[in-house]
């Protein structure tokens, strides 16, 4: 398995929210900055204008998709001028029968509308969530805005097919919707990331760029395969084919963190996945090289903002 495939296989969405938006002109909606998640908008019909707070407005047509990996504030409107703007919370509050608060993940799609007699725009919007308290390195590695165009022959066909699947699921809400839509959202997210890296590699940074680096990518793959191993700088440098100083410098240049910092994060995420499956704290402390469960608890709480036991209990409650 190549490095990118392994990285994508190890990346799991913790949640995704799906909403069908049906807006009649005139309309303008402010998607305020949130603490986490990657809001994504797909134009189903009509057109929209994207205002990125100070950047020139961007026209979006049917089949276009935009994603904000770090949830920068943005406004979608029916014209380049953002007049009479409502926040997305206000729009939700005015939509009959819709109840939702930011950060809440639902097992059914939202249907949000702005009524009127003007030209209509229909969008399918999603929010991808990869981590709970800290920005995921995958999202940090992506550009602040990803724009996939329907006119791009390498992207348009697969994007349209995936989105049609999601639209059909959102409209029908048949039994099994939550599982099927979640799997399609997983695939959509991976395809967006893959397309951005393979078609515009100069736009990505950090972890993704390091994955395709001949030297650092090999060391990263080894770390991701065996996060619990007692890795040392000389050992990682040997795998990469670089000197110790050359490895550290190149790793920091690409990742913007030290090898130790990245390994620490990797271990915490691997431990969190095991905790969700019911693993015991003591066994994880041993597996990931901590001298005592207490030292593991401290490291885990620094990363996730809660103890391992609290994290496991929370996820067990969510799965009930």
Automatic annotation (TrEMBL):
<dbReference type="InterPro" id="IPR009057">
    <property type="entry name" value="Homeodomain-like_sf"/>
</dbReference>
<dbReference type="InterPro" id="IPR018060">
    <property type="entry name" value="HTH_AraC"/>
</dbReference>
<dbReference type="InterPro" id="IPR018062">
    <property type="entry name" value="HTH_AraC-typ_CS"/>
</dbReference>
<dbReference type="InterPro" id="IPR032783">
    <property type="entry name" value="AraC_lig"/>
</dbReference>
<dbReference type="InterPro" id="IPR020449">
    <property type="entry name" value="Tscrpt_reg_AraC-type_HTH"/>
</dbReference>
<dbReference type="InterPro" id="IPR011051">
    <property type="entry name" value="RmlC_Cupin_sf"/>
</dbReference>
<dbReference type="Pfam" id="PF12852">
    <property type="entry name" value="Cupin_6"/>
</dbReference>
<dbReference type="InterPro" id="IPR050204">
    <property type="entry name" value="AraC_XylS_family_regulators"/>
</dbReference>
<keyword id="KW-0804">Transcription</keyword>
<dbReference type="GO" id="GO:0003700">
    <property type="term" value="F:DNA-binding transcription factor activity"/>
</dbReference>
<feature type="domain" description="HTH araC/xylS-type">
    <location>
        <begin position="217"/>
        <end position="314"/>
    </location>
</feature>
<keyword id="KW-0238">DNA-binding</keyword>
<dbReference type="InterPro" id="IPR014710">
    <property type="entry name" value="RmlC-like_jellyroll"/>
</dbReference>
<protein>
    <recommendedName>
        <fullName>HTH araC/xylS-type domain-containing protein</fullName>
    </recommendedName>
</protein>
<dbReference type="GO" id="GO:0043565">
    <property type="term" value="F:sequence-specific DNA binding"/>
</dbReference>
<keyword id="KW-0805">Transcription regulation</keyword>
<dbReference type="Pfam" id="PF12833">
    <property type="entry name" value="HTH_18"/>
</dbReference>
